[in-house]
Specification:
single chain, 416 residues, alpha/beta, Urease, subunit C, domain 1, TIM Barrel, 2 domains, seven-stranded mixed beta sheet, 15 helices, 15 strands, 35% helix, binds N-(iminomethyl)-L-glutamic acid, binds fe (iii) ion
Length: 416
């Protein structure tokens, strides 16, 4: 089956001419084709060009569908490279406390925060978690996210972490959204190990990671390395285990304080370091020289009313900058990539072009998928969104609603 999309006011390809990422000034080049068209064959992009040059099909060709974009923007679907979207319960009462002036850390110190969601998630079975998350993925897709990473980390026992990863595995088989799983056993110290940190790290490194790798239940291992959570030494132990078991690496780094852990991540060749609100100049220099993507989470700074990561410095230094939602019940209860793009522009001073590159091609790179998704280039999967508007610059500008008119996933035009 083939699908021809024609009459795009702007075909925003985000093409990197075969490269896997864009850095520095390249992030402003969206590879736009005016009055563009695109042909999809067997789910993949077969041709990209101007509508006037598009292959012509007559109406009798049974295996070709022609879609008229009617002067709208056609661009790659969003890739959200950092979510915690499998969880049970709600933290709206903690949100109310934050509105009264309590901080995220103060709530965590009182036994709330991540451990609040851990209690709810432990008490929920795999089937129910899967259905909660599946409903969330439906909404992501409607808002233009065609690929999402999902982390465990609200189980913190072997059984409950596996339950989360198995739910993610079910979703990767059942749901249209492409799902990439990450094991985040080191999200918080479980209460059962309050007096035995070493025991928990031992459980993660000797038991959980080898089992998860053997069963193919995750592609990446992540650690929340920050004050009150895990140390750099513990992070390195977990990275060593992940690496020797063939899993990729990610890191929650410099969110609440400056830890310097970006250095460890870069040394181990991590796919990404995420958050970076307190990143140092030295660490920015290290990222600029590495392949490790800097995943910025504008929604977290917005929702927690905390400082923003230095996007301009990161871009200007030449780091691979991506953005993600971090969708989770504590620090960002929003999955909307269009909203993240607006916040990145207004609060972090990214340009609309940089923010779009960060939410597509560079976001795919942060989860190791930019060879197959994240831009509209021949040979890649056809994950495409069609905006309501005729200008891509309306995306950050007109905020708070849903700017997406249509979604094409793996070459199939979806009905909503
Ligand atoms: O990325 N920083 C650690 N983890 C999440 C928050 C999770 C939660 O509060 O439930 C984050 O912000
Ligand atoms: Fe996170």
């Amino acid at each position: 089956m083939r699908l021809l999309i024609r009459n795009a006011s702007q075909l925003v390809t985000v093409s990197a001419h075969g490269a896997r990422t864009k850095r520095g000034a390249e992030m402003r080049d969206l590879g736009i084709i005016e009055d563009g068209a695109l042909l999809i064959d067997e789910g993949k992009i077969a041709w990209v060009g101007r509508s006037a040059d598009a292959p012509s099909f007559d109406r009798s060709s049974p295996d070709v569908e022609v879609f008229d974009a009617e002067g709208r923007v056609v661009m790659p679907g969003f890739v959200d490279p950092h979510t915690h979207l499998i969880f049970a319960g709600s933290r709206e009462d903690e949100f109310a406390l934050r509105c009264e002036g309590l901080t995220y850390q103060q709530i965590a110190e009182r036994g709330g925060g991540i451990l609040n969601t851990v209690r709810a998630t432990r008490g929920t079975d795999r089937k129910k978690l899967r259905s909660l998350a599946s409903h969330r993925l439906d909404r992501l897709l409607r808002y233009g996210t065609t690929t999402a990473e999902i982390k465990s980390g609200y189980g913190l026992t072997e059984e409950d972490e596996l339950k989360m990863l198995q739910a993610a595995h079910d979703l990767s088989a059942e749901h249209l959204v492409t799902v990439v799983s990450t094991f985040l056993g080191a999200h918080a110290l479980p209460p059962e190990y309050a007096d035995d940190r070493t025991g928990y790290i031992e459980l993660i490194t000797s038991q959980m990671i080898p089992y998860i790798a053997r069963k193919g239940l995750a592609r990446f291992v992540d650690v929340f390395c920050d004050s009150g959570y895990f140390t750099r030494e513990e992070t390195v132990r977990i990275f060593e285990s992940a690496t020797s078991n063939g899993l990729g690496l990610k890191l929650h780094a410099d969110e609440l304080s400056a830890t310097g852990a970006v250095e460890d991540a870069a040394r181990f060749g991590a796919a990404s370091v995420d958050h970076l609100e307190y990143i140092s100049k030295e660490e920015i220099g290290l990222l600029a020289k590495s392949e490790t993507a800097a995943v910025l989470l504008p929604g977290v700074s917005f929702f927690l009313a905390q400082r923003y990561a230095p996007a301009r410095e990161l871009i200007e230094s030449g780091a691979v900058v991506a953005i993600a939602s971090d969708y989770n019940p504590g620090s960002c209860m929003s999955f909307s990539m269009p909203l993240m793009i607006t916040i990145a522009c207004t609060q972090m001073k990214m340009t609309p072009e940089e923010a779009i590159t960060a939410a597509t091609l560079n976001a795919a790179a942060a989860i190791g998928l930019s060879g197959e998704r994240g831009s509209l280039e021949v040979g890649k999967w056809a994950d495409i969104i069609i905006l309501e508007s005729s200008s891509y610059r309306s995306l950050p500008y007109e905020f708070g609603g849903n700017p997406i008119a249509h979604v094409v996933k793996n070459g199939v035009l979806l009905e909503f």
